Each structure stands twice: as structure tokens, then as C-alpha cells.
Amino acid sequence: MKFLVAFDNSDGAKKALKFAMKFKGISDEYIICYISPLVMGAGPNFDAYVPPSLYKKSDETSDVVLNAAKELIEKENVNATFLKLDAPGEQIARAMANQAKERGVDIIITGTRKLSGFSKMLLGSVSSEVVKLSTVPVLVVPPE
Fold it and tell me: Which of 4, 14, 1, 35 minimizes the C-alpha distance to 112?
């Protein structure tokens, strides 16, 4: 089986990754995926200069996040691929679902912060969107 684990170094993501390791006996591969939210995009109606330093900082953040994931599973002796992508904030869940489909993943494992009310409206819920958009099963690990 192939697992895609959403990881952003939050407490919920750490718990989800640790939970995913319970399946190491049946796992052929873990794809640990961090999707960096794009600060701004460009398109036909939007033109702006984005300094290269902003992209460099985003890339450095991605490396820090994925290195944290590597540290969490370093003693697990599993086949893991670490994937970093960029997507606009509202497209993170779609990018996750697309990666799962493209890579032949059997299940997506993600954490959640259990947002509600105004926080959920303002920040959205990536895990809820992944459940809606995915063509493969999604396991959502609740926070402590």
C-alpha cells in the first residue's frame, strides 16, 4: 500500500504522521507531502513583482518542515519520499488530492486542528476539503 501523509509541522500533522507509522507493516511507500501556500499569484488580471527572496524563504521553510518530518520517522525504517509543492491557499486540498491520484496512492492521512466558527470561516479546513475532493480514502487524525 502507498500512503500520502499531509505534513505542515503542526501538532496535528505530527500526530497524523506518527499514526501513519502504525501501518508500516503493510506500507510499500510513504509520501510525506508539504504544500507551501503561495503568497500571491500572477495571472491575466494581476501583475506584480515578487522578489526572489520571497521564493527563497518559502523554499527554506519547506525544507525545515520536511526535515522535521524526517526526524520524526528516522528510526521507523520505512520507505519514504518527501515531496514539497506550492499552491495558492485555497488550492492546497486540491493539490493534495491530485498528487494522491497521480502517484497511485491508496490512502491519504492528514491531521486536523478541529477549527470551528469564525476560525474555520477565516482559515478554512484543508482536511475537510481533502475529504470532499479526494478519489481515494482519507483518514483524518484528530488532535490531542
Answer: 14
